[in-house]
Design goal:
403 residues, UDP-N-acetylmuramoyl-L-alanine:D-glutamate ligase, 2 domains, 16 strands, 38% helix, 16% strand
Length: 403
């Protein structure tokens, strides 16, 4: 076995590793059963003088819509001739697609230099204990140090999220509902409170399913003396333009776009909807051909949002992780679903296949395992369940084997 070559820095407790960034990230778990919320703020306090960007940070927090809202904001700003760094996780197709500059992947050499910088900055224990998401967040502040704007999408949290350590120019809150309840709380009130507590001096909130979210947001804004905004900052004419320009998209995507445009208005941009021409949302209710839609949604809020836009008699290609409330999700989608094919995914956190089969059967839906020859041109399909489900399906190129 080859040994990893390491060079010792002047501080004997620091080691600069030759392990490349991908291998280093892959050595870290994607998910944790528990989180030490005190660790990363301490890291930030210790090193922020070497990592703090002068860019205006736009922080996006919520349950559903962070990806589409973040993509819209970064696209709009970059097409207005600003340099924009965007951080979105988890990765979709390529391990490094979580970081982009003006919607382009970052060169390997640039990633390598940022990784080397951090490896020389952190000490042994910090390198050992830092999580994949925390390290990826630190990478942002090095990669995006010379940007005009940085769009940061929160992970699972809000006030305790790694992305929340940096001072924000604008906090953007997308739809908030149930997800990651093991970390955030079992009620909408608790989940909304921890997410909304991340607001800084300026915030905007989008459409919400639960009225209490708006009440909590209003109260926290008053307590923090935060400037509170909502979609009313858009004129009726501006709203109509957005609706007309994106009329082919589902309502929930138009709501996310509207929030993003409103956010750019708060950032001082003139509203020019044509700046969003050919805007594309990968794996967000994306139609990849005539009869297949892929979506990385994985919670009840997402299921409720897409249900009305699924064709009657659609076949669901599905799987999920054990921490997701798949019973509720399947029950929401059931009225539109003809049957369910379970896609085999390689993940330690995947729900037991027999448990999933039993639940699908109890809901009165047909169920079978997904095979290479499953897809037929006369059927409509929805690939849904999580990033890993969509990634597995797309990697298999199953839609090209349709019979």
């Amino acid at each position: 076995m080859k040994s990893t070559r390491r060079s010792r820095s002047k501080n004997s407790n620091r080691v600069i590793s030759s392990v490349n960034l991908k291998k280093f990230l892959d050595s870290k778990p994607l998910y944790y059963d528990s989180i030490d919320y005190e660790f990363f703020p301490k890291i930030w306090t210790k090193y922020k003088h070497k990592l703090k960007t002068k860019a205006k940070v736009v922080h996006i927090v919520g349950t559903n819509g962070k990806g589409t809202t973040g993509k819209t904001i970064s696209t709009y700003l970059s097409r207005t001739n600003y340099k924009v760094g965007h951080f979105s996780s988890p990765f979709l197709y390529k391990w490094c697609d979580i970081w982009t500059i003006n919607n382009q992947l970052i060169d390997d050499d640039v990633l390598k230099k940022a990784h080397k910088f951090l490896q020389g900055l952190l000490n042994r224990d910090e390198i050992k204990h830092i999580s994949r998401f925390e390290y990826s967040t630190l990478m942002c502040f090095k990669l995006f140090e010379f940007m005009d704007f940085v769009v940061l999408e929160a992970g699972l949290g809000g006030e305790k999220d790694a992305t929340n350590v940096h001072k924000k120019y604008l906090s953007v809150f997308v739809c908030i509902g149930f997800d990651h309840t093991e970390f955030l709380g079992k009620t909408v009130n608790k989940i909304a409170t921890t997410k909304l507590n991340s607001m800084d001096k300026n915030m905007i909130i989008g459409c919400q399913k639960y009225d209490e979210v708006i009440k909590i947001a209003t109260n926290i804004a008053k307590q923090k003396n935060t400037k509170y905004h909502n979609l009313s900052i858009l004129t009726n004419k501006e709203k109509q333009k957005i609706q007309k320009y994106f009329s082919v998209l589902p309502k929930f995507l138009i709501q996310n776009i509207s929030l993003a445009v409103a956010a750019t208005k708060l950032l001082g941009m003139d509203i020019k909807i044509s700046n969003l021409k050919n805007l594309k949302f990968e794996a967000r209710f994306e139609q990849i051909n005539d009869n297949i839609i892929i979506d990385v949604g994985h919670n009840s809020l997402s299921a409720m949002a897409i249900k009305d836009f699924i064709k009657q008699g659609t076949i669901l290609i599905y799987n999920c992780l054990y921490d997701k409330n798949f019973k509720v999700i399947l029950d929401i989608l059931k009225p539109k679903i003809k049957m369910v094919y379970i896609l085999n995914i390689k993940d330690k956190r995947v729900v037991n296949i027999n448990t999933l089969k039993k639940e699908i059967t109890s809901l009165g839906m047909g169920v079978d395992l997904f095979e290479n020859n499953t897809l037929k041109k006369e059927n409509n399909y929805l690939v849904y369940g999580s990033f890993v489900v969509v990634r597995t399906f797309m990697k298999g190129k199953y839609w090209k084997k349709m019979i």
